[in-house]
Amino acid sequence: MSEKTSRLPGFYKLPPDKRARVVASWANLNDEEQHMLTGDPGLTLALADKMIENVAGVFALPLGIAANFRIDGRDVLVPMTVEEPSVVAAASHMAKLARAGGGFRTSSTPPEMIGQIQVLDLDDLDAAAEKVLAAKDELMEIAACCDKMVVELGGGPRDVEVRALHDTAAGPMLIVHLIYDCRDAMGANMVNTACEQLAGPIERITGGRVGLRILSNLADRRLARAECTIPADVLGFDDFPGEVVAARIVEAWAFAAADPYRAATHNKGIMNGIDPVVIATGNDWRAVEAGAHAYAARSGRYTSLSTWGLDEQGNLTGSLELPMPVGIVGGATRVHPVTRIALKILGVESARELAQIIVAVGLAQNLGALRALATEGIQKGHMALHARQIAIAAGATGEQVEQLVAQMLETGQINLAYAQELLREAQA
Fold first, then answer.
1. How remote is the C-alpha of 83 from its chain's centroid?
2. Which of 268, 349, 380, 421 is catalytic?
3. 20 to 30 A from 257, CA-CA: which of 9, 37, 40, 354?
4. DSSP string of 191-222?
5. Considering the domain boundaries, does residue 202 fall inside one?
C-alpha cells in the first residue's frame, strides 16, 4: 500500500462535494461522518443546548482543508475553521514550498499546566513559602486524588512551586503553583479542581487566607515548536528572485522583532493559521490566544513569536515556539461531532502531536504573510478572494460571482455598492 500524500493537485478547482469525497477517502470517513461535513452541520439545537446556556440557535463556519503539509515525515491534511479568505490557500501554498526543504520539523514539552493558588494575610512570605515547600509531598498526594484516571494514564501532579509577590495593589501575597500533567486533555477542569482541593490544606499550612485558585493560561510549561528550511529558489515568483524574497522576509521579520506595533499584526498573522485548527478540533482558542500573546511579551517587551533567518547556503530558515494547551479528549472535542471528524482527518494520537501540527500551520501562515508583504503586498491575493465575498453579499449567484469578481479586480473598486451596481447592469 502506497503512503498517503497531502499533495492534492487541482484540489482547489474541485467543487465542494468532490473535495469532501477526497477528504472522506483520505480519512476513511463513514457515510454519517461525511454527511456531517457536507449536509447537516452536526451540531443540533438540542446538543447545542447542552453545551452552553441560553441557546437560541446554532452558528456555522466554513471548514476548509489545507493541503501539502508534511510534518515530521508524515503527510497531513489540516482542517481549518475560519471565515477569512486567503488563510487556507496561503497555508497550503506555503506548506508546498516547505516540502522542498523536507517539510516541518516539530517538538513539544510534556503537557503540563500551571494552577495558581493565591495566599493572602501573611505576616512573613518567606516563612510561609518554606512551610508550603516542606509540605509538598502532602499537597501532591491530595492533588493526585482529584483525578485518579489521569494518574493511571501517567499524568497528574508533577511539582509544587512558590512565588512571592511582595508589592501588589492588594498588599503582599504568596502564589503557590501546582504543576499538573494533563496528558491528552487541555486540562482546565482537572487543574482547577485540584487547586480547589488544595485551598484548605494550604490555609492550614501557612496560616493565611486563600483567595483565587485557578489555572494560568500562560502555559509556558506546555510549549510546542516548529521549524522549517526553505530553499531560496522556490520562494521566487514573477519579477522577484528567490534570494531577494528570502532576504526581504528576514527584513520584514526584523521589523516585527523590534517594534511592538508591527509585532501585534505579525503575530495576528501567525494566529490566522493557529486559531482555525484550534477551533476545528474543538479546543479553546481564547486560551491559546491569551497564552501566545503573553509569551510574546515574556522578556518584558512584546515581540515576534517567530524567528526567520538565512543559513550559510542562503536558504530561508524559520522557527516558531509558543504555549499550546490543546487536547483531544474532553470538552467540545468529545461533544461536538464535527470536531471528532476533524481529529480523524488529522490522524493524531496525542495532544502533543496535535499541538505540534498546529504550530507548524502557524509557521506556514506566518511565511505566507511575510512573503506577500515583502513582495507584491498583502492585498493582491487577499482582495481577489475578498471580492468573491463582496459579490455574494451583493446577491450574485453562479457564473455572476466570477463575472463581478473579474470586473471589480479590473477596476480596483472592490466594494458592495459597486458590486450591486454591476449586478443591476447585468440583470437589466
1. 15
2. 268
3. 354
4. HHHHHHHHHHHHHHHHSSEEEEEEE-S--TTS
5. yes
Query: Do residues 298 and 187 share a domain?
Result: no
What does the alpha-carbon distance between residue 92 and residue 8 come to, in Å, rounded to a whole number? 10
Annotated catalytic residue 421: no
Cell numbers placing 179: 504543576
pLDDT at 43: 82
pLDDT value of position 379: 62
DSSP state of 85: T
Same domain membership, residue 153 and residue 74: no
414: domain CATH number is 1.10.8
| Residue 373 placed within a domain | no
Shared domain check, 337 and 238: yes
Range of the domain at 419: 380-427
Based on the fold, state whether residues 120 and 97 are members of the same structural domain.
no
Exactly one of 4, 35, 84, 196 is catalytic; name it: 84
Whether 382 is a known active-site residue: answer yes
Chunked mean pLDDT (size 10), the chain, 428 residues: 82 91 94 82 82 90 96 98 92 97 98 98 97 98 95 97 97 98 96 98 98 98 98 90 95 98 98 98 97 98 98 97 96 86 96 98 97 78 75 86 86 88 85
Instruction: Examine the fold and report which residue of 320, 335, 368 is the final residue of a domain before the chain moves on.
Output: 368
**Nearest 5°: phi and psi at 7?**
-75, 115
CATH code of 48's domain:
3.90.770.10
- At 213, give phi and psi (nearest 5°): -145, 105
State the cell numbers at 46.
438540542
For cell 503553583, name the residue.
177
pLDDT score for 60: 87
* Grid cell in block for residue 358: 498546529
pLDDT of residue 1: 39
Residue whose C-alpha is closest to residue 345's, from 8, 80, 126: 80
Annotated active-site residue 268? The verdict is yes
- Edge-first strand order for the sheet with 105-108 is 105-108, 223-230, 316-323, 306-310
pLDDT of residue 427: 84
Q: Are residues 389 and 306 both part of a single domain?
A: no
pLDDT at 263: 98
Q: Catalytic one among 75, 184, 275, 284?
A: 284
259 catalytically annotated: no
Kindly state the greatest CA–CA separation across the chain. 84
The answer to whether residues 176 and 161 touch, using CB atoms and an 8 Å cutoff, is yes
